[in-house]
């Protein structure tokens, strides 16, 4: 599956209250040439229904679940839904899978053993009446064991809140072939204080979560960096802010480190679809 070099990662493409505006926005992003539209799991819900809405609105872009929780979405349902959407829309749906955290496992009545649980989930996708091909699924991985598993049993990996240095390490683990598609938060704002404030407004809850905090510590950040919504050092490292040229420099850093695709999340201080930010970023497609 070809998802291009850059894509748009957007909770608004799931959460925005007006489906007509979502349809129009997705069609515009498709026309701009973005290779993929990524929608997050957001704790559950009908993610394949939301993916189908985007598939109907577009002609060329892939749609990626970035990512759905294996604890909240049964493998049999996802395999059946994937097969149906593939019949209706071709090979444009990439299932991104994640192990979430121990709280999600407990809520589902499971035991949090990420590698074992993910292997079992992938087995179910393989054994479904209409299996999900390995190259039409990928795994959210921020540690070496999950990254290695992603390279063996899926198209590749989609790490969240990572630096280009992490991308380089992940590429070493994956080897040359698999997809490596890091999430990259961006703020189209050249004023440092405003850009960092906007970034913190979105990222602070994630930085406070144990599994993301541990990942950031493994990347070299300290407890001080994680406090108060994130230090300037942390924000500047995991969020690209500035004009589109400055953001393009960060995207190229991921490519230089071994990424094959970068999923850009335009964070805005305003609610609603970030149409102005997407239009400003459109030259990065080229």
Description:
With 286 residues, this protein is α/β, with parallel strands linked by helices. It contains 14 helices and 10 strands. The longest helix is centred in the C-terminal third of the chain and has 16 residues. It starts with 5 loop residues before the first strand and ends in a 5-residue tail after the last helix.
Strand content: 15-25%
* Overall form: globular
Which value, in Å, is the CA radius of gyration?
18 Å
The percent range for helix content is: 40-55%
Q: Give the helices and strands as they follow along the chain.
A: EHHEHEHEHHEHEHEEHHHHEHEH
Distance between the termini: 20 Å
Question: If you average the pLDDT, what whole number results?
Answer: 95
Query: Low-confidence spans: pLDDT under 50, at least 5 residues?
Result: none
> Largest sheet, order of strands side by side?
5-4-3-2-1-10-8-9
Largest beta-sheet details:
8 strands, parallel
* Count, helices: 14
The helix-and-strand class reads alpha/beta
* Number of separate strands: 10
Could you give a quick summary of the protein structure above?
Helices cover 50% and strands 15% of the residues. The chain has helices at 12-15, 19-32, 47-57, 75-89, 102-107, 114-127, 144-153, 164-174, 192-207, 210-218, 223-226, 232-238, 244-257, 275-281, and strands spanning 6-9, 36-39, 62-69, 93-98, 137-139, 156-157, 179-180, 183-188, 239-242, 262-266.
């Amino acid at each position: 599956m070809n998802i291009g070099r850059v894509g748009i990662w957007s909770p608004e493409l799931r959460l925005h209250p007006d489906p007509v505006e979502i349809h129009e926005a997705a069609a515009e992003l498709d026309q701009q040439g973005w290779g993929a539209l990524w929608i997050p799991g957001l704790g559950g819900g009908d993610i394949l229904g939301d993916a189908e809405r985007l598939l109907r609105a577009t002609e060329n872009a892939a749609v990626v679940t970035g990512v759905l929780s294996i604890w909240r979405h049964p493998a049999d349902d996802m395999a059946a839904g994937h097969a149906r959407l593939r019949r209706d829309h071709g090979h444009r749906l990439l299932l991104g899978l994640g192990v979430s955290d121990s709280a999600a496992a407990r809520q589902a009545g499971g035991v949090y053993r990420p590698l074992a649980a993910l292997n079992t989930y992938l087995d179910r996708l393989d054994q479904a009446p209409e299996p999900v091909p390995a190259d039409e699924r990928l795994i959210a991985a921020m540690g070496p064991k999950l990254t290695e598993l992603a390279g063996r049993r899926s198209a590749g990996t989609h790490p969240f809140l990572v630096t280009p240095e992490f991308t380089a390490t992940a590429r070493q683990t994956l080897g040359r072939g698999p997809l490596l598609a890091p999430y990259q938060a961006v703020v189209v704002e050249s004023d440092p204080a405003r850009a960092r404030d906007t970034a913190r407004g979105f990222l602070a809850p994630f930085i406070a979560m144990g599994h993301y905090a541990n990942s950031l510590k493994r990347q070299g950040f300290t407890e001080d960096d994680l406090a108060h919504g994130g230090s300037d050092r942390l924000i500047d490292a995991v969020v690209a802010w500035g004009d589109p040229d400055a953001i393009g420099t960060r995207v190229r850093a991921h490519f230089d480190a071994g990424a094959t695709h970068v999923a850009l999340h335009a964070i805005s201080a305003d609610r609603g679809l970030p149409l102005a930010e997407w239009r400003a970023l459109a030259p990065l497609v080229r």
